[in-house]
Write a structure and sequence with these properties.
The protein has about 475 residues and is α/β, with parallel strands linked by helices. Helix content is about 45%, strand content about 15%.
Length: about 475
């Protein structure tokens, strides 16, 4: 934990003494104050004491600022790459895949927007049966979490014993001992560490985990660190049946994990400041609740179904979400234009004038759009009226890494950094969807210019992006 240097303590002391002297000088020159001190000395000192006490309590109780020190994205080994040819081989060797299902998945893959360098866990690449899936899922979990956390601690120079909170988000796997216990055991975190395990929130759980970390750190009085780890298990949820809504997940989900270190103490090394966060939950609507659902098919085979309602639900959820977010982040010019267009539409009728969609690029220099799939990206682009240059990082992330679930926003932000587009003071919007149905947003401000380091997952391929055709 960083302590104030001696010169900083001396500077703070002199500044406090100067402010107090000026304040007392101002009081002594006031006629009213002289009268109060002469006639009501005890009351005056009581008021003065209460004022100082109230000021002290206000300074102590106000929320602290939250920063991201750094983050790390896990990059699997080269031999785990899943090209179209490799995926064809995986299908052809499995006698439980019918010709109809084989052709369906090949068709989905060709239209998915995924490239030939995404990653699959060893279990999917090397096995055709459903035995030992739990052990394989744990191996995948450990590979991603330990790799990301090890790299993060090495990059930041922060000791594992300095971590005060550890949060692990894994959408569809909840083993015992928990993932946070696995982290504590592997890296030797202190006994007083507070641990939180988040599950069942799908691709949005990474944003939700940062949301939780931010809320914890803002209430801490002392400088603290929160370690956020986001991962997923492809091995445990690979579908071996014939339900087409469940087969889709085999085509777009790929292995990935990320870790981020947050703190409530500003230092020269922090990368981003967390300005705002927002979560909206649309699970009261039945179709939204079941848009992405884990269940068994008619033959009793477990899988994760992505229904035809998913794109519609995502669009409706996004519209409701930005109605809450927009007043908090948009400049006044955009808010006034939007209010005028909406009023005009109501007065003249829906056919006479359509409500204006606010231009979110006026509030953010960079937007990390949910990389859920090609159709999801296109729908978000249509709802928010975003150009191809805005959704470029999302589309390229889908091509290079696939849908890595909860960690996707970190791979996408790494694209911005690899291109060195983020400048000090820029604002970044991270947007993600989760099962249930949830929409989550994080708003960041860059504290320094971005740079391409050797641990960036795009380091060896960024020169090939963006692609001309997607």
């Amino acid at each position: 934990m960083r302590k104030l240097a001696s010169i900083q303590v001396l500077q703070t002391s002199f500044a406090s003494l100067l402010v107090l002297s000026l304040f007392l000088h101002g009081l002594s020159s006031s006629t009213l104050v002289h009268y109060m001190l002469d006639q009501h000395r005890h009351v005056s000192w009581a008021v003065l004491w209460c004022t100082f006490l109230a000021l002290f309590l206000y300074i102590r109780s106000r929320p602290r600022r939250v920063f991201m020190v750094d983050y790390s994205c896990f990059k699997p080994d080269f031999d785990q790459k899943a090209s179209f040819e490799v995926c064809e081989y995986i299908l052809s060797r499995n006698d439980r895949v019918t010709p109809a299902s084989d052709q369906f998945m090949k068709g989905i893959y060709r239209k998915s927007g995924l490239g030939d360098e995404t990653y699959l866990p060893p279990y999917i690449l090397n096995n055709d049966d459903t035995t030992n899936r739990h052990a394989a899922a744990l191996e995948e979990l450990e590979q991603g979490m330990y790799g990301a956390v090890s790299d993060l601690l090495a990059k930041t120079g922060v000791s594992a014993s300095d971590v005060d909170h550890v949060i692990v988000a894994c959408g569809v796997m909840s083993p015992s001992p928990s993932p946070t216990s696995m982290i504590v055991n592997r890296f030797g975190l202190k006994e007083s560490v507070r641990s939180f395990n988040l599950s069942g929130m799908g691709c949005g759980s990474g944003v939700m985990a940062v949301d939780l970390a931010g809320r914890l750190l803002r209430r801490e009085r002392k400088p603290s660190y929160a370690l956020v780890v986001v991962t997923e298990s492809i091995s445990l949820n690979w579908y071996f049946g014939e339900n087409r809504s469940m087969l889709v997940t085999n085509c777009i989900f790929r292995q990935g994990a990320a870790a981020a270190l947050l703190t409530n103490q500003r230092t020269g090394s922090v990368k981003l400041e967390l300005l705002r966060w927002l979560r909206t939950h649309h699970g009261a609507d039945d179709r939204s609740y079941r848009a992405a659902f884990q269940e068994e098919d008619e033959n009793g085979t477990a899988g994760f179904a992505l229904t035809k309602d998913l794109i519609r639900v995502a669009g409706e959820g996004l519209r409701a979400h930005i109605r809450t977010l927009a007043p908090r982040v948009l400049p006044y010019s955009q808010l006034l234009a939007y209010a005028y267009a909406s009023l005009k539409s109501r007065l003249l009728g829906a056919d006479a004038a359509k409500p204006q969609v606010p231009d979110f690029t006026t509030a953010f220099e960079h937007i990390c759009v949910h990389t859920g799939g090609k159709a999801v990206i296109e729908n978000i682009s249509r709802v928010l009226k975003l150009g191809d240059h805005v959704t470029e990082p999302s589309r390229m992330t889908l091509h290079r890494f696939g849908n890595t679930s909860s960690s996707l926003v970190f791979y996408e932000y790494a694209y911005f950094e690899a291109k060195q587009r983020v400048k000090k003071g820029d604002k970044v919007w991270m947007l993600a969807f989760g099962t249930g149905f949830k929409v989550g947003s994080l708003v960041w401000k860059a504290m320094r210019d971005s740079s391409l380091d050797s641990t960036n997952p795009w380091a060896d391929c960024i020169h090939r992006y963006p692609l001309k055709a997607w």
